Amino acid sequence: MSNKLKIGLIGLGTVGQGVVKVLDKYDDIEIICCAVNNLKKKRDVAIKNLTQDAMEIASNPEVDVVVEVAGGVKMLDVLMEAIKNKKHIVTANKELLARHGAALFDLARKNQVSILYEAAVAGGIPIIMPIKTTLSANEFTNVAGILNGTTNYILTKMEEENLSYLDCLEKAQKLGYAETDPTGDVEGYDAMYKIAILSNIVFGKRIDINRIYREGITKIDAIDIQIADELGYKIKLIASAKKINHENRDDVLDIRVHPTLVPKNKPIADIKNATNAVMLTGFPVDKVMFVGPGAGEFPTASSVVGDILTIKSEIHSSKNILPMTICHHDKYAYQVDIEKTINCYYLRIDADNEPGVIGKIGSACGEFGINLSYIIQRNKNSQDRATVIVITEECYEQDMNKMITKLEKDNKIKVVNKIRVM
């Protein structure tokens, strides 16, 4: 067919093989070459014209669309070269977009090509195109969600099976949900890249990922899960971005990733296992939530192939295809430091089991203007140490940190965990 869309594929791992399998039913789309790290590796799919040089894909004059599912910032030069050669891009590479999206989108605009990346944020959940199309009439004030399936699976199993973090991580690794080195997931990097991309789209500003507060789930213990449940909460790794008023400005963004106590009556509290969810708040739509599989071979391939088909439908119709995908904003957002934010807090405190401990905690909170909404001492352990649980009312992060520093000057008291409350 003369109008057959020709694909150059970079990456033939789990997602890449899923893309090949899904595209197999489309007679008018052909993968003409593919770049891989290991030519001899056994795979579930057969591809002709394999190469270990991704630059060959970027410079191949027959390729219409470069589909990159290899991941990592090492792909920057390859995609830049592909764009210079007037090739449209489909990518699932959230780290690359979060770190170098500005350079890529500026070059794409100059060369009149499109970059589509639905798979980079929430796997199989359609979120980018709905924001750019159906929801484009809205002025958004908040976007938040569970954007990492690995951590949500671990926290779910800790809750349901009363297991430790390490035990649940091992289960996730055996099932293929977590990598051998799980740092990118469990320390919140993956969710940070995704909320940066979402913030860019939702608020029309470029985002400095170095100013996003990031905290993973490695400090969450089974006792935190248990106590949260008793108090009417579930613990989730929440990535969020919202507009706030700060220093007489109303366009400041508070962007962060960290474990959060979520009230059980919030819909997002019910999101379990590897499922992802994205919540948007704006006018006139008010609140909407998108839920679905955030990773995996076919869910992610669904979004990748959807982007390919979108380009296929437009590529012969005009010189400037898909104008809605072109990034026109070039200003960076004003991002607030976490120390300047206001939050409620859950504290788990380990202290000597002796009279006056509760009083010391209350006194330290009072010194920094922090009101308590809940405080209870649980049973002592074998070392005659007690666990004290505190839930505070809203206060500044900087005041909370000062209070903890003050409290821990008493060597009989240790704040074991601090978790923000939704």
Describe the protein in words.
This protein has 422 residues and is an alpha/beta fold. It contains 14 helices and 18 strands. Helix 3 runs parallel beside helix 4 (94-111), helix 7 packs across helix 8 (165-174) and helix 13 runs antiparallel to helix 14. The protein folds into three domains: 5-123 and 297-325, Rossmann fold (3-Layer(aba) Sandwich), CATH 3.40.50.720; 128-293, Dihydrodipicolinate Reductase, domain 2, CATH 3.30.360.10; 341-421, Alpha-Beta Plaits, CATH 3.30.70. The N and C termini lie far apart (55 Å).
In short:
The protein is an alpha/beta fold and 422 residues long.
Number of strands: 18
Radius of gyration: 24 Å
The residue-averaged pLDDT reads 94
CATH superfamily of the largest domain: Dihydrodipicolinate Reductase, domain 2
Number of helices: 14
CATH topology of the largest domain: Dihydrodipicolinate Reductase, domain 2
- In the CATH hierarchy, the architecture of the largest domain is 2-Layer Sandwich
Highest-level CATH class of the largest domain: Alpha Beta
Class inferred from helices and paired strands: alpha/beta
What portion of residues belong to β-strands? 25-35%
Q: Low-confidence stretches at least 5 residues in length (pLDDT < 50)?
A: none
Number of domains: 3
- The quaternary structure here is single chain
Shape: elongated
Largest sheet: 12 strands, mixed
Distance between the termini: 55 Å
Helix proportion range = 25-40%
